[in-house]
Amino acid sequence: MKNKYIPRDISWLSFNERVFQEATDKTVPIIERMKFLGIFSSNLDEFFRVRVATIARLAEVKKGVSEFVGEDPAKLLKQIHKKVLEQQQEVENVYNAIVKELENHKVYIVDEKNLNKEQSAFVLKYFHETVLPTMAPVMIETAPNFPYLNDKSIYFAVKLYRNGELKKSMKYVIIHIPTDVLPRFVVLPRQGESRYIILLDNVIRFCLNELFAVLEIDNAEAYTIKLTRDAELDIDQDLSKSIVEKIEKSVKDRKKGEPVRLVYDREMPHDLLQFIMKKIKLKRSLNAIPGGRYHNFRDFISFPNVGNKELLYNYPAPLPHPELSKAKSLFSVIRKKDILLCYPYQSFNHVIDLLREASIDPKVKSIKMTMYRLAKKSSIAHILANALKNGKSVTVLVELQARFDEEANLFWANQLKEEGAEVIYGISGLKVHSKLLLITREEGTGTVMYGHIGTGNFNEDTAKLYCDCTLLTSDKRITGEMTKVFNFYSNNFKIGNYEHLLVSPFFMRKKLIKFINKEIKNAGEGKEAYITLKLNSLVDSELVKKLYQASDAGVKVKLIIRSNCSLVPGVKDMSENIEGISIIDKYLEHSRILIFCNGGDERIYLTSADWMYRNLDLRNEIAVPIYDKRIREKLKKIIEIQLSDNTKARILDLQQDNAYRPTVHGEKKIRAQDEIYNYFKGRLRAHKQPQPA
Questions:
Q1: Cα–Cα distance for residue pair 368/226, rounded to 1 Å
Q2: Domain 503-688: assigned CATH number
Q3: Is-catalytic flag, 452?
Q4: Could you read off the pLDDT of 111-169 as tens digits, one per residue?
Q5: Catalytic residue (choose from 433, 452, 500, 687)
């Protein structure tokens, strides 16, 4: 079959289409639909900043680069452009439909043309008191340099002229719309039961003539533009510079990245568009994308809650873990048994509590952890600083190449270093993506180590929205090998040998291939053989081929892939034993769970690694085996619920049309995320009930 492998970027566009579907789904609360438009837009921004920028670079090389992207780069760019243009029009249509539906709930989004007298006075006052102090228009025809356009901002390209004197009086102006310091949405005074919202863009439009009154113009036409730049870091190889200096320089250089996309209001006059394209030196007209009146839909993630509860999802409060919530000491619980935490269903506060206990416990001697993406106001970083004040030894590996979090990570690294922590600034040539915490405690029986291995970041903010799993353990088989990993961070020559953990880039790929080969062998011998994978991305060509081989041998393969999936399930004589679904819902599916039949003695792993070349060969990732029978059953139950989803599950196939899994007449509707929350709620309730004597 020709299409054995769907290019990663085409698959990603299909994933973002699934995100967009949530904005079109009328069973989703209206404001949540608006937020999904924002998520879709934010995803697309990052896609252009990183992936399209990379493909554009490869297209300039031309020869010998197709294997990097799975397609000829120039051809791929055209495919992307075609798809994005289609999506752009759909976004505008859906936005307009949502605006109409909001009116049924007496919520009105108004523009500068339909303000009543009271609203006009409010907007004018708001502009003069709040907006005008942030305004700095640039007359781009007479300015010595064209202004730098930040790729996270939106701008007005303004055309000014007097009636009857177009050529003589015409002026071009660039205005930054200050959404970085002001909210994108302004809530107007309530009128009875009706609520009114105006975008900041339209506040400025309403007052344009006042802004340029000194120029004595009759007409001011404003058209929104948005620029996206190449965001890949170029890390120079100057050996005299530290990794910190290189990252700091690269982050600054990123802000000057080459333009890769210009989205503009399609109503913009041709002369103004051509003038701007020339000034920003946009190399490809292919990357100029006509859009509607509004850009930067990612701001719609923060669309205001105007008070109607039915317009939003009900996000139930995270549940306490039944065995941790009442414990005086979390160490005493973890010493006896392994603990599984699953967010956002259960509370991430337990991890914060564990660290807080470690920071004040006189028996605790050291804390070691990896940092990839911390919360903006990280409790964890503050607790580590407190641990240092209490005399604990703290070692932190801070990954400075966590994309778009480099500056934040530099900040926390410097803060902790000033407090006395040993800070390891990543590993040269190897991104550290593992989610590890290792606490050493002196107890009566000797030294005991307590470990945390997770699928998600140490981030209390994202833990409220990302579905992730964490193993807390004092099992020596695990913590002993975690020590080897931290030794490797300190001394990159000490790779270590691992019997239990799967560690990339050294052994994980080989072990995974070995596990798949075992299933192939067992299937060939007529034994039960199956593989179940829950991942964010499955694009590694070697592992895709191995799964095809497994399917051909009769191994039953079930996939739950949130994002990119280059494997094509369900094709006769190639992948007919492979089924694949993707779940997009109110929480972001982020956990990675691997299950291999292994002749009846199942191998079950939690891992930070997706099945991508970069994760297996260019990053340090960890997969931890689950030995505790109770936890194994919990993870299998979670997977079982997700595989039975017939509400938010989409079918993965060659067509990539993202069809929802059909339901049989009379079949119970199952929405996995709600079912999983109820599962943990039921376990908590059962734990609280008195046990029979």
A1: 43
A2: 3.30.870.10
A3: no
A4: 999 999 999 999 999 999 999 999 989 998 777 888 888 888 899 999 998 887 766 77
A5: 433
